[in-house]
Each structure stands twice: as C-alpha cells, then as structure tokens.
Amino acid sequence: MGTVWTEEMLDSDAGRVPVRVYRGDRQAKTPPLVLHLHGGAFLGGSLESGELVATLLANAGAVVVAADYSHAAKQPFPAALQFTFGLLGCLCKGRANLASRKSPLFVAGEEAGGNLAAGLALKARDVHLGGLQGQILLSPMLDPTMATGSFRKAEAEATNCRWVDGWNRYLGFASKACHPYATPSYCMRLAGVAPALVVTAEDDPMRDESVNYARRLREAGVMVQEHILAGRTGWPNAYCNCTGARPQWGESLCGFFTEFFQETGALPH
C-alpha cells in the first residue's frame, strides 16, 4: 500500500486550514506527529512541492501534517511564523485525532520551511509549548547575509539568486533581520530548544549556515544529529521534484529520519 495522504481541515486561530495528512502502512502504536513546512524561498512553494519530503517522513514511521503557509509568507515577518505556530498548537492539542494521544510532536521543513521550523522551535521553548520533541531542518534558510563560502560558490554558478528576493520579502525591514525567530542564526540563546536533525549537502548553498547552526546548537547543549550528503544532490531545488521518481538520496534521508525518531524516543529501536 505504501504512503497515502488525505485532505483534512484544521481549526486554527486563522480559521479552518486545509492540510494534507500523510500516513504510511508501517506505523507504531504512538507514531511521531510531524508538522511539515515546504520550501519556496518565501516566494512560493505549495503542498505539491513538499510532497517528496512529506512522503519520506511518513515512510520513516510518522504521521505528517503538511501545511501550505505561502499566503502568509506574502506578508512580512512575523505573519508566516504566527500562522504556522497556530498550526503547531493545533497539533499539540489535537494529536489524538491525528495520530495518538501520546504521539510525540515534531516540526520539519526544508529551505524557507526550515527557517520557520527553527523559529517555531525557539518560540515553542520561549512560550513553553508542551511536547515539542524535535526539529528537522533540511537546508534551512538561516542567515540573510548569504555571505558563506557555500553561498558564494552557488552565486558564482547562477545567473540570479531567488533567495535574495525571498529574504527581502520575508524580513520586510532591515530591523527585523535581528529577530531570532526570523533569522535563527543570529539567536544568542539556543539552550533548551528541542533536539535537532540538520541535513545538508556538499553542493547545497545553505550548507555552511546549516553546519554552523548545528554546531552552535550542540555547543548550547542541544542534542543534534547532523548529516552532509556527498556528491551532487541539486539541493534545495531538488526537494520539490514532483516527477514521482525517487531520488538517489531519498533512501538516505528516510534513514536519517528514522534514526532521529529513534534517538529522541519517538520510535523504538
């Protein structure tokens, strides 16, 4: 049977929000419940473009709630963060209806969705949202300066950089670039956030900022699993490959998810 998804509605502070719920055919009695946020550089993206990662998360044993935040991302920070934090609260309260009453809660995202996932983990710590057991960050957009070595190499090979436009839209004003929820790489207080899985690739423009954030989380005492895929992956653009063909790195990524769920106690070894 494999992984299937259904269209459902979540009741949030923003009203009824359509989501996709992915479920695999091999689930534990209390499967991890994951809020998944797709990429799109704060310029676009959709539930369709996030299908590949959401499916891999479900294949790893999770119930995945994929939400489209793109309409909120058309407004400057903190609109998208507030919208997705409301959804995270819905999952926290309604996990029994989606998975199990005792299901551990995770947030996951790639690229712009990874930025939001990291910001949500920080906010969940600060407002004492109960039950967030982990954050899964894939090529997260964390540093608006885009001055790392991996970004300079990517810009040298590209004719334009959509991430510049995305950061400009998301931040709106330069003063917001200092807010830790908007730019987690600038956060000076990382202790106490949920354990993190950080995955990047050798050819990923966000590689250096991902690695730096993983290091700073670890130095703050946060449990971190970190992986850098070798070779050419095409990340982060390859995340939204909707052709239906399983990429070469898909099996590795699914394995990273499973290992992280096990390490955090969300799945048995």
From TrEMBL:
Q: Does the keyword Flavoprotein apply?
A: no
Q: Does this entry carry the keyword Manganese? A: no
- Tell me which residues make up the Alpha/beta hydrolase fold-3 domain: 34-230
Q: What GO molecular function terms would the record report?
A: hydrolase activity
Q: Which domain of life is it from?
A: Bacteria
Q: Which UniProt keywords apply?
A: Hydrolase
Pfam families documented for this protein? Abhydrolase_3 (PF07859)
Q: What is this protein called?
A: Alpha/beta hydrolase
Source organism per UniProt: Phyllobacterium phragmitis
Q: What is the lineage of its organism?
A: Bacteria, Pseudomonadati, Pseudomonadota, Alphaproteobacteria, Hyphomicrobiales
